[in-house]
Task: inverse folding
């Protein structure tokens, strides 16, 4: 009897563990995990309007709830307003698929891409570009796990991202990474600073969070 390969011995639990301990509800079973391609990412979005990242040949559904989307949209609005006065690059929102490495597609909630890094090669409209943004922002949702976010952090910095912001609405903090092992946690009484990536950009975390959580007219 032929012996099974390591891949054949893999269980669903092994797969979820490799992806960072994410909930099984986020893994699409069609195409079969391990066989998905970038075209599948595009096809699923076109067919169902669902966003999926491509990780190790697996389609992993992107998680963002109603409340989290308000944080990301507002931040994108603040950044666009800043860039309208400082022509440094462009902002990509929560449906901006990007190839970090062959076979790895991530979709940050917000990303800033400087004109220097913006993809110059001609590509078919709708195709996924290869690009490492200068700044990546992820708004943490209930379906995210610490190990998933650690894996993403590793990937972002390996790809060449300069800064990563992890926004935690529940704890009311923003963790700013300038390297895999270099970070600072900012609270409500502090300001985000664009640093060398967005020189001159500042944002009160209290003002941002307050606006994102507002439920009535002023």
Result:
């Amino acid at each position: 009897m032929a012996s099974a390969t390591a891949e054949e011995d893999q269980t669903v639990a092994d797969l979820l563990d490799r992806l960072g301990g994410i909930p099984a509800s986020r893994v699409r079973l069609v195409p079969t995990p391990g066989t998905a391609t970038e075209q599948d990412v595009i096809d699923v979005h076109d067919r169902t309007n669902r966003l999926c990242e491509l990780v190790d040949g697996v389609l992993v559904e992107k998680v963002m709830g109603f409340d989290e989307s308000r944080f990301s949209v507002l931040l994108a609005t603040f950044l666009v307003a800043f860039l309208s006065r400082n022509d440094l690059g462009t902002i990509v929102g929560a449906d901006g698929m990007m190839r970090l490495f062959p076979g790895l597609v991530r979709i940050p909630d917000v990303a800033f891409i400087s004109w220097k890094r913006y993809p110059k090669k001609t590509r078919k409209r709708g195709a996924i570009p290869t690009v490492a943004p200068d700044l990546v922002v992820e708004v943490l949702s209930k379906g995210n796990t610490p190990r998933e976010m650690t894996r993403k952090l590793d990937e972002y910095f390996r790809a060449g991202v300069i800064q990563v912001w992890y926004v935690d609405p529940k704890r009311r903090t923003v963790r700013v990474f300038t390297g895999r092992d270099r970070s600072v946690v900012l609270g409500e009484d502090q300001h985000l600073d664009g640093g060398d990536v967005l020189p001159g950009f500042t944002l009160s975390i209290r003002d941002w969070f307050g606006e994102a959580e507002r439920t009535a007219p002023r």
Q: What stands out?
A: The mean pLDDT is 94.
